[in-house]
Amino acid sequence: MASVTFDKASRIYPGQARPAVDKLDLDVADGEFLVLVGPSGCGKSTSLRMLAGLEEVNEGSIRIGDRDVTDVPPKDRDIAMVFQNYALYPHMTVAENMGFALKIAGVNKEERASRVLEAAKLLDLEDYLGRKPKALSGGQRQRVAMGRAIVRSPQVFLMDEPLSNLDAKLRVQTRTQIASLTRRLGVTTVYVTHDQTEALTMGDRIAVLKDGILQQVGTPRDLYAKPENVFVAGFIGSPAMNLFDADIVDGGLKFGTATAKVDRETLAGASGKKVTIGVRPEDVVVAKSGEGLPVDVDIVEELGADGYLYGHTDVDGNRVDIVVRVDGRVHPNAGDKVVITPQPDHIHVFDLESGERLSKKAVETSK
Amino acid sequence: MSAVTPIDLPIDRSTEKQLARGEAKIEGSTAARRTKRRLTSRSATIAALIIAILWTTPTLGLLISSLRPAKEVATTGWWTIFSNWGFTFDNYVQVLAAGNTQLTMSEAFLNSIAITLPATVIPLVIASLAAYAFAWIDFKGKDWVFIGVFALQIVPLQMALVPLLSLFSRGITIGGVQLFSGLNQGTSYSQVWIAHTIFALPLAIFLLHNFVSEIPRELIEAARVDGAGHGQIFFRIILPLTMPAIAAFGIFQFLWVWNDLLVALVFADGTVAPITKLLAEVTGKYGQEWHLLTAGAFIAIVIPLVVFFALQRYFVRGLLAGSTKG
User: Fold this and answer.
1) For B293, what's the count of Cα atoms within 13 Å in the CB-facing half-sphere?
2) Domains of chain B: which residue ranges?
3) Where exactly are the transmembrane stretches of this chain (chain B) (predicted)?
4) I want to staple B172 with a disulfide (CB 3.0 to 4.6 A). Which of A29, A258, A318, B179 is the partner?
5) Is the pLDDT of residue A10 over 60?
6) Is residue A61 exposed (0-12), middle (13-18) or buried (19+ Cβ within 10 Å)?
């Protein structure tokens, strides 16, 4: 077991001006479950493959523990990887698949068999050890791929979207299984996904990437409560945070007909006369009438306990869409007109130009 | 589709027939299913039978002729066997002992085996290694080398005969420096092995490369992460997965070398000549002894038949593999 360090590691594909991964600085502590998340093409898989040694590191270095592995071939890195399509060896049985790495490492037959069996018990695969991957279901194949990684007891687990080929229900089940399994084994894990829900539910910490650049690293709670820029604010959370451009006025911000109190220090850092404000759907108070922003309700999505109200308002003649969380039982209906106000402690303010966070306050008033 | 049908469920006649033939079990794309159905329909079966009979009849005639006395063969056709009854193994006994001044037919038969096995195995070994390198190892100028190998397929075999002969006998000398001294072995198998290997490699590399490159990248990456080097990846992953293609090409190459006469005439003369050369000589200058040819031909096709039946499973799968997905 070991920590993992990316030290200004870059990957530039030949013939491309922009690096696929740009000076990535990232520390993963020993035994930590770190999730790399971002939209497709953000460089998350490339980062993982750099750590695996399947992708060249053009600049900077990568360390596993104290060892610099930048130029070490994958076979000598003592890592195990779970691939998106599992990459099981089709001509080998489940047991042979799981024991392959041990066989290569020259582990004797008895020990190999006992370690494979141990891992198979852990994953509920004992009955399938003699089967070929062809004769397994998707979920079983996924478990075999996990087993192949576990058997080796490597320093680091690498997982490249291992759940994306499963159906929705199985994905939710497996996601908790993987998270608890890796924690029980205490092995450092780097997990790649494009699904922010997966990231929030599984990770000890999450690293958000965009266009090869690291946006923010932090605990799921940090990322949700205190996104450091507009991209993270919009990416983490579902439905996404409402983001508008608002004018700076005396004593706060003005958006359409509504005003919000924001302290002067926060706004002092703004580069222009406008800022971007963000309000999560659950941080909005809905009223039938009174002060606030008038909103026409388009539809209400009912999810049982909660509902999401999708509406729009006009600001200077421009239509602005808004999402608000409402009570699942009592809520306005489509066609209604309501008035909304943000909860003042839960307003995120970002610079309009740089997109960087201006509000300093950690918005964790609910303790 | 499930193959289980409740017994009391009314089934129309055509479904019943399909079930009886086990067609309901066929899974896969509808196109594949349709093709399968067409190929197994009654008219297709009849057509296949007719073709089989048309193509087997001459072989049967050859077999009957080879077992008839020389006098009968020379005067009557094999289809009159019932009116001119008579069987003998004399032709086989004679032909095995027949031959030219340097070797007999039975020695030539052994020569054929000695030529064909290495001339099949050597190119397969080299080609599968080359295919792996071309498909999965990055090195400078890879594409150009591959295009070069591919282009060599166009060179007619006949063009290479003289240069090869000169290479074997005199070696290579460039600017006064001798790079290769030639084989200087007179009559030996090595010349014909090398010649057949050289002629087989371009196509073998090309075919195997196409097959090897279709192995999913992740499999090889998984093996690399699992600790395998190039050697282990090749022997434990690539080779088992490429077996159908290797077997298919192996059969092709085996049959080609076994039936070859031209390359043998040039490079395997004298005491190392294969059976094809002896067959051509055994009928005599004027073809007067063609009853011997019938027996000789049968001896010559025994080995290819054995090889084909032993490996036909791979043959069919290997030719289809890669062409269909899923």
Assistant:
1) 17
2) 16-88, 97-320
3) 43-64, 113-137, 144-168, 188-212, 233-255, 292-311
4) B179
5) yes
6) middle
pLDDT at res. B317: 62
Where is average pLDDT lowest: A45-54, A275-284, A300-309, B278-287?
B278-287
Q: Where do the domains of chain A lie, and which CATH numbers do they carry? A: 4-225 (3.40.50.300), 240-351 (2.40.50.140)
Nearest-Cα residue of chain B relative to residue A84: B218
CB contact under 8 A, B228 and A52: no
Are B241 and A80 inside 8 Å of each other by CB? Answer: no
**Alpha helix (H) residue ranges in A16-71:** 44-52
Residues of A in contact with B227 (CB under 8 A): 75-76, 101, 104-105
Question: For chain B, which ranges sit under pLDDT 70?
Answer: 1-29, 183-187, 315-326
* Structure-block tokens of residue A234: 């919009």
Residue of B138, B224, B226, B246 to mutate, interface with A, max A Cβ within 10 Å = B226
The answer to whether residue A362 scores a pLDDT higher than 50 is: no
User: What is the model's pLDDT at position B315?
Assistant: 65
Residue of A nearest to B232 (CA): A104
Residue B237: its chain A contacts at CB < 8 A? 89
For residue A104, the chain B residues in CB contact (below 8 A) are 226-228, 232
**pLDDT tens digit string along A37-90?**
999 989 999 999 999 999 999 999 999 999 999 999 999 999 999 999 999 999
Chain B: residues touching A (Cβ < 8 Å) = 216, 218-219, 221-229, 232, 236-237, 240-241
Q: How far apart are CA B183 and CA B103, in angstroms?
A: 23
B144 CB contacts (<8 Å, ≥6 apart)? none
Under CATH, which number does the domain B97-320 receive? 1.10.3720.10
8 Å CB contact of A104 and B225: no
A12: confidence class by pLDDT, cuts 50, 70, 90: very high
Name the residue among B219, B229, B241 with its Cβ closest to that of A75: B229
Angstroms from A15 CA to nearest CA on chain B: 16
Interface contact B227-A105, CB threshold 8 A: yes
Calpha distance A37→A48 (Å, rounded): 11
Q: Determine what percent of chain A is predicted with pLDDT higher than 70.
A: 98
B39 token code pair: 């190929």
Helical axes B290-320 vs B275-282, angle rounded to 10°? 150
